[in-house]
Amino acid sequence: MIILGIESSCDECAAAVVEDGRIIHSNIIASQIEQHTPFMGVVPELASRLHTELIVPTVNQALQEANIAIEELDGVAVTNRPGLLGSLLVGLSFAKGFAATRSLPLIAVDHIRAHFYAPQIEHPLAYPYLGVLVSGGHTVIAQVNGYDDVEVLGTTVDDAIGEAFDKVAKHYELGYPGGKVIDDLARTGNPLAYLFPGTTLPNPLDISYSGLKSSVIHQSDKFWDQKSEKSAANIAASFERAAVNMLIKRIRLALEETGLRRISAGGGVAANSYLRSELEAFREGGYEVSLPSLTLCTDNAAMIAALGYHYLVDGITSPYSEAAQARVSAFKRNNS
Ligand code: KG4
Ligand code: ZN
């Protein structure tokens, strides 16, 4: 089965052609980084306008690179939740029109579920496994029992980990997008230059990034050392170490509590080098670890098409009247 996937939930306009949920024939990502860089963050109105310009050429490129004729498609999978409403609407409206005029099934996909599914494309793990989702809007530790069965064990009570990376980078004017900039800078810094306090919450698997973010930002006088060329790198490395170690501590606890022996991670922050090396280290303890390649960590349409394939096989499709939803409550604890 060949599925066209479309993703436009934030600032990436993406289209992909995937066969049987595993074989990626094309995976096109039209980035808007250049246009958002002057603002050091995503400007929602600008993002949706750019999506309207980019969606047609991006889908065309995905079909051309895959060398697939429209007649060969079996369905259209599209992100309809969660994300920036204006951005979501562009991809969803295009997908609805494309599918309806060709009488193809439409499959509306939850972008967060797709991030949980992404590691399964290249290095599939048997269910159940511990799924870690770390993105710009979410931080979730979950037991993943099936492609559509995600049981939340712990989640952030305030900011997402990616948001903390982005805000720290913005505050210190390190560059945009923040996560990647901090990752690169941290490689030359001393992760023990500054020690930041951790947090304890009623549910030990929940996590908070607001305190860490605030202490890195609001005590900048204490950290910024004019005399040291390495100051920015030391802040980046120390912040990255604290943010990742907080997460690793919860992952270790979740593994102990659930007895799971397989781990995967998805979402933009799963591209972080330090987090990846810490997760890979679990292999030494006999755990199976599956991490997506970098293009499948950040927003992409291949994960949407791959997950959409499973819904289609199980006969789960969406009406052509499907709506976009900016927020979903599904990834709050005990409510999946
Ligand atoms: O999954 P994603 O592309 O979009 C959302 O669904 O949010 O994640 C974007 C987030 C941003 O906060 C970005 O700064 C972060 O992922 N990110 C990284 C890295 N690459 C992207 N954070 C840390 N290290 C990276 N290498
Ligand atoms: Zn995402």
Care to describe what's here?
There is one protein chain. This protein has 336 residues and is of the alpha/beta class. It folds into 2 domains: 2-115 and 296-333, Nucleotidyltransferase, domain 5; 124-291, 2-Layer Sandwich (Nucleotidyltransferase, domain 5), CATH 3.30.420. The chain contains 13 helices and 10 strands. The strands form 2 sheets. A 5-stranded mixed β-sheet has the order 3-2-1-4-5, sandwiched between helices. Strands 8-7-6-9-10 form a 5-stranded mixed β-sheet, with helices on both faces. Helix 2 runs parallel beside helix 3. It is globular and about 65 Å long. Bound molecules: 5'-O-[(R)-(carboxyoxy)(hydroxy)phosphoryl]adenosine and zinc ion. 5'-O-[(R)-(carboxyoxy)(hydroxy)phosphoryl]adenosine binds next to helix 6 and helix 7.
Brief rundown of the structure:
The protein is an alpha/beta fold and 336 residues long. The chain is built from 13 helices and ten strands. α6 runs parallel beside α8 (210-218) and α6 (161-171) runs antiparallel to α10.
